[in-house]
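Hey, quick one: can you model this chain's 3D structure?
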Amino acid sequence: MAKINDMTSGKVSKIIFGFFMPLLMTNLLQQVYNFSDTAIVGKGLGDTALAAVGNMSSLTFLIIGFSMGMANGFAVLISHYYGARDIDSLKKAFAASIKLAAVIAVFLTAVSLLFLRRIMIIMNTSDEILADSLRYGYIIFAGLIATVSYNISAAVLRALGDSRTPFIAIVISSVINIMLDCICIFGFRTGVEGAAIATVAATFISAGICIRRILSIEELSLSRSDFSVPTGMYSSLLKNGLPMALMNSITAVGCIVVQSFVNDLGVAYTSAYSACSRYLNMFMLPGVTAGYTIAAFAGQNFGAARFDRIKEGMKVCVKIALAAYVLLGSLMVFFPRLLASFMLNGSDTIGIAAEFLPICGAMLFAVDLLFVFRNCVQGMGQPIMPMISGILEMVLRIAVIVVFIRDIGFRATAFAEISAWTGALMVNAGAYFVYIRRFSVQKNTLSYQVSTT
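Sure thing. Here's the predicted structure for all 453 residues.
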């Protein structure tokens, strides 16, 4: 049986970077695939097809983000049990997570397929791209079982300190994905549906690799009795999972509203916004990865009541986020037209994208730090404040786009982003300092009481 990674002892910086680097490569490869997918669609099928695929991104985040939030919430509880070395509860929590994930997959597939066309129309999707958006979306959402399987298996592995296996899974699936993209689009001339088929097929492969690794871990080796889960375990999992899922979905609603305003401006703006979103997703990767790292690290150490180590881990992850901002934010500020030209064809569309990138690049530190603070709070089993911050993100995005779109045009989308990031960062940073102080005081009080008895 394979071993898992104990993050409750040893040098903090070594553990953080040992977990961070494979996970960064995993996330980077995912974004490289997304970038390549966008480039293949844009260069192979044109800016209109790119707009159709990009138009699905906010809705995809709404649906897939919900399942990802649930998976990460379940993993928090699993990391707590492992940190506390409560293996019986760990197995029960894992078995319950499998059951709940199956229900979530069926529910999300049914809802997304049933309401896809209606939502596309509500989003003011242009008739020019509606058919392609639907063809792409129906295939992606029909394959949600693969996405949910990967999300839950990768989240569980990260909770136990394994960031290497998801990396291997993404390496293999990304290569297959890009190959299938090229075969479908350039070889068989399938259109956008070829890109969707390639994505679903590759996701099944990545899920299979992670599941195979889970089957080799002794602490996750389940018997029939482990599936006899007490009701309280489901409640505990949902208590962590639902707020995180709702946070992702609420945030996505704000993105959908912004997307609808962009669609109203015309197909060129939809294409430019799609390219800008791809760059944002890629350049915030170090912050996202630092967030996932501190979530796993904080989860295990919270279970072991090692709050001093959580503080040390936060210092390392904040430094990672700020270093990434200096490097990647500078690229967005100083080379926006060059970046845009890698994915877009028309000079007008490139010019539109070049308005967005420098504004967001200057404030990229806000979203990088947001991921670190929010994930640490979630890793300590406190999902409510992050959910509230998700509501604030939605409100700020919608308010800014509604108020400023007529006066400053497409640039309002960039100001909507940075306003949402800044507001959510303030909430989560405040929550972190309150919670870490509270738990530290509670531990010191308990230690004092024990020593005096």
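One thing worth noting: Residues 446-453 have pLDDT under 50 and may be disordered.
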